[in-house]
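Board notes (copied after class):
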Amino acid sequence: MPLHHVSYGEGVPVLAVHGWTPDHRLMSGCLEPVFADLTGYRRIYPDLPGMGRSPAGSIDSSDGMLDAVLEFVDDEIGTEPFLLLGESYGGYLARAIAARRPEQVLGLGLICPIGLAVENAERTVPEHVVLRSTPGLLDGLDEQAAADFTEITVVQTRETLQAFLADVAPGLDVADTEAMARIRKNWTLSTPPESGPAYERPTLILCGRQDSSTGYADQWPLLPHYPRATYAVLDAAGHNLQLEQPELFAALVREWLRRVSLEAT
């Protein structure tokens, strides 16, 4: 089943997998500024099944989602080595892809990923807090958009709202909620991503200190499986870490890209 996607640039493929409900804009919005003055990378941003413009078809589990992304890799990248990034649920799938194809994945980047506890009720997460807010920010904003923004956002400023409305909200509006509810019933992968050999290539794990969705504690137990991982917990950052700490996010992603590049030479 073909997945809708957009791509930019030429060179080493960089596959970026978004999280649950949004679409590819979640990833392209935060990553394209990182690559703005870098050459030699082909950034590929697919919509996961049931999200964006990708139909879910008969997929009814995360196993089916993983198979769809692996088929996309075969069609779009082939056997060429590539870099892999995933956000939240996309990070869960990215870990599974790296486990399936450790020789092909040159480096793994995880942004606010689901940790060892997959189901929300089993996660260790802090209470949602707002650390910064701009008075009158939500005046005139659509009620649903305001609720989506304030539910998990820690830094509620004009800049984070504009980024949310550009990168996150459009995907939330078009998601196939019926198909997603079907898939959600079988959300845990049959084979845990860390059940095989350790992934020994450059890895980046970024977590928000105030992330009330996936937290930061459940990712720490992943580290033995990723011996080349940088693990960073950013203050003043929730589940929209890439929107709330864009400069630090960009610096850490660039450092990961440099490590991958040095490893490949």
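Comment from the instructor: The mean pLDDT is 97. The beta strands are 5-8, 12-17, 41-46, 82-87, 105-111, 132-133, 155-156, 203-208, 229-234.
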